[in-house]
């Protein structure tokens, strides 16, 4: 339902998030070739409750999402982002790989992410900056 002016009501937004996270969990479970029953055992949640989450009837807590992520062997962060608990991290697959590396300390991960993001910002700025006459001449040569 929408309010006058086309805005969504808060409860409708919650329902959309629950539906989205449920669909995402179902997709992850499917691609991992795990049955609903197997995931419910791995995650330590009841079969009916997990089914309700997947159908968008229930919106799971962060703790339940963490248990489901563990059962699916995916990052809890990915589920938190999908559920709207966390903002989407920047850096894409490179950032995800850095965050997932168990051999790096948290400090090392942060330094790598900072350097990587600085390169991305620098390249983005270079791509949006007006080209000089010399750059334009070099490209056409």
UniProtKB/TrEMBL annotation:
PANTHER family: HTH-TYPE TRANSCRIPTIONAL REGULATOR, METHYLPHOSPHONATE SYNTHASE. It comes from Amycolatopsis rubida. GO terms for cellular component: cytosol. Transmembrane segments: none annotated. Gene3D superfamilies: lambda repressor-like DNA-binding domains. The keyword DNA-binding applies. Keywords: DNA-binding. Residues 25-79 form the HTH cro/C1-type domain. InterPro entries: Cro/C1-type_HTH, Lambda_DNA-bd_dom_sf, TransReg_Diox_bact_type. This is Helix-turn-helix. Pfam families: HTH_3. One of its GO terms (molecular function) is DNA-binding transcription factor activity.
């Amino acid at each position: 339902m929408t309010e006058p002016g086309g805005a969504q009501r808060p409860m409708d937004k919650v329902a959309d998030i629950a539906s989205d996270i449920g669909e995402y969990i179902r997709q992850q479970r499917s691609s991992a070739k795990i049955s609903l029953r197997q995931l419910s055992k791995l995650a330590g949640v009841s079969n009916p409750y997990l089914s309700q989450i997947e159908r968008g009837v229930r919106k799971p807590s962060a703790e339940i999402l963490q248990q489901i992520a563990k059962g699916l062997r995916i990052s809890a962060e990915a589920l938190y982002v999908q559920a709207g608990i966390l903002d989407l991290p920047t850096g894409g697959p490179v950032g995800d790989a850095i965050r997932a590396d168990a051999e790096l300390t948290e400090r090392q991960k942060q330094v790598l992410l900072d350097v990587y993001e600085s390169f991305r910002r620098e390249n983005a700025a270079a791509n949006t900056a007006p080209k000089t006459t010399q750059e334009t001449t070099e490209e056409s040569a």
